[in-house]
């Protein structure tokens, strides 16, 4: 399936939106730029999440037990195996595969159980603190380690969600499943969805556990705790290496910071995969758009595209999930598109899916005074494969009658549907967005109904 930024559900033609499911829908060719934050499991009202956090903590502290009992090689092997979890697909990788940590970094981590008395005695409660103690231990490692230690739960969760939404699963071999009874990574056969590109198994993860940055992190510690409580005016600010060395020598400082973060737990929220802009921002953007001149004077075209992109992505959510913003060149002209997944989440979306083979909706942005035949032909040439035979032009003014006739003729000859939305339509969508009485996408549905009525029967 050659669609833009494909997801697991798109490959299997399963029409669900990100909003309606409990898990983060995985991309097939790149990672989701979010991470599992163990702190969200710790602060959760769910006893299940709390017990999973305890399991992560106990499993991680077992590394310290092995190290302090003289099994240094076993401890290092465990932390290395725990450091990468490709099956969940989180991070910034464009290849869907990551690298485990090396022996040098693994040794620095295991040495914490010996060099810091409090950790040697009691272990970690929040192992994310390692970010404040060791260099190159980042948020992706926190996430992958947490996922690996509860992979058994994630397998069951994935199967349950796949059964619920009819996502196909296949027999797979997992080579890095953690067995909390033996405290070892084992191999196990099970059934999971498969990435059709890499042929590797996929694990689904609850959205409620995901953040862009862990609640406990180095930047927050430095700006909001170290500078305010420990830094003396006039002193030279420590670089990261010196700061981490200070933290290792003064672990009580790190513990105090963690205790503060625990008390502020109610402020720790998961990050959504998509954020709608506030109503005030939507009003501001439509106001900017209406005041812009057409054409390219003073980068008016770029300003129009920037504001329209941010506005539209929010106006059509949650009925349409934003897939990608992209530019293409045709006949020497740069064209900016917005592409959405068609999840068939609204009656008219289901109709264009069935009638025009529209798996993804392309919206082409045109800051021109008048839409012309050449603009229709540009989009027409693009309407094939994943976009099917349906597209939308977002422009400034209503199209002239001859262009409306051209669009109708295109439908008559090739059964292609091109809708043209102008400033007044965007303004109406923004007003509907503000009122909360109806859905902005109904404005697009109205344009579609008007189009179908104008077509010859």
Strand-helix topology:
Elements: H1 8-11, E1 35-36, H2 38-43, H3 47-68, H4 72-82, H5 103-115, H6 117-122, H7 139-149, H8 151-165, E2 170-179, E3 184-192, E4 210-211, H9 218-229, H10 240-249, H11 251-263, H12 279-291, H13 300-315, E5 320-330, E6 333-342, H14 347-356, E7 360-365, H15 373-382, E8 390-394, H16 401-414, E9 417-421, H17 423-435, H18 441-454
Parallel strand pairs: 7-8, 8-9
Antiparallel strand pairs: 1-4, 2-3, 5-6, 6-7
What does this structure look like?
The protein has 457 residues and is an alpha/beta fold. The protein folds into 2 domains: 8-267, no CATH class; 279-454, Trna Endonuclease, Chain: A, domain 1. Helices cover 47% and strands 13% of the residues. It contains 18 helices and 9 strands. It has helices at residues 8-11, 38-43, 47-68, 72-82, 103-115, 117-122, 139-149, 151-165, 218-229, 240-249, 251-263, 279-291, 300-315, 347-356, 373-382, 401-414, 423-435, 441-454; strands at residues 35-36, 170-179, 184-192, 210-211, 320-330, 333-342, 360-365, 390-394, 417-421. The strands form 3 sheets. It has a 5-stranded mixed β-sheet, with helices on both faces. The model has no long low-confidence stretch (mean pLDDT 93). It comes from Flagellimonas hadalis. This is GxxExxY protein.
């Amino acid at each position: 399936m050659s669609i833009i930024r494909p997801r697991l559900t798109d490959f299997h033609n399963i029409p669900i939106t990100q909003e309606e499911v409990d898990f983060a829908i995985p991309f097939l060719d790149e990672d989701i730029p979010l991470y599992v934050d163990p702190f969200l499991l710790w602060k959760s009202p769910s006893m299940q999440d709390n017990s999973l956090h305890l399991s992560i903590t106990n499993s991680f502290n077992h590394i310290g037990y092995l190290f302090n009992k003289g099994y240094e090689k076993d401890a290092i092997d465990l932390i290395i195996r725990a450091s990468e979890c490709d099956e969940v697909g989180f991070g910034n990788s464009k290849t869907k595969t990551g690298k485990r940590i090396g022996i040098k970094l693994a040794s620095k981590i295991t040495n914490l159980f010996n060099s810091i008395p409090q950790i040697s005695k009691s272990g970690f409660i929040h192992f994310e603190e390692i970010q404040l103690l060791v260099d190159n231990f980042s948020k992706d490692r926190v996430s992958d380690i947490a996922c690996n230690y509860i992979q058994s739960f994630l397998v069951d969760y994935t199967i349950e969600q796949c059964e619920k939404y009819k996502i196909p699963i296949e027999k797979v071999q997992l080579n890095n499943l953690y067995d909390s009874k033996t405290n070892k990574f084992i191999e196990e056969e099970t059934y999971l969805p498969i990435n059709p590109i890499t042929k590797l198994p996929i694990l689904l993860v609850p959205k409620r556990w995901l953040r862009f940055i862990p609640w406990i992190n180095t930047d927050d510690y430095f700006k909001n705790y170290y500078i305010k409580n420990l830094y003396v005016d006039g002193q030279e600010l420590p670089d990261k290496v010196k700061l981490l060395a200070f933290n290792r020598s003064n672990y009580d400082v790190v513990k105090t910071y963690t205790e503060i973060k625990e008390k502020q737990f109610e402020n720790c929220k998961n990050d959504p995969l998509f954020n709608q802009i506030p109503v005030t921002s939507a009003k501001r953007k439509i106001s900017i758009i209406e005041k812009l001149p057409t054409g390219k004077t003073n980068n008016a075209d770029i300003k129009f595209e920037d504001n329209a992109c941010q506005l539209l992505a929010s106006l059509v959510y949650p009925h349409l999930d934003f897939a990608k913003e992209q530019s293409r060149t045709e006949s020497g002209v740069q064209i900016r598109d917005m592409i959405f997944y068609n999840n068939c989440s609204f009656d008219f979306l289901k109709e264009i899916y069935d009638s025009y083979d529209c798996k993804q909706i392309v919206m082409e942005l045109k800051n021109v005074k008048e839409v012309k035949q050449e603009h229709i032909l540009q989009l027409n040439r693009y309407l094939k494969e994943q976009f099917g035979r349906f597209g939308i032009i977002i422009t400034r003014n209503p199209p002239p009658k001859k262009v409306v006739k051209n669009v109708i003729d295109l439908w008559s000859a090739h059964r292609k549907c091109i809708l043209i939305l102008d400033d007044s339509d965007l303004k109406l969508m923004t007003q509907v967005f503000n009122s909360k009485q109806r859905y902005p996408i109904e404005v697009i549905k109205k344009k579609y109904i008007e189009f179908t009525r104008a077509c010859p029967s």
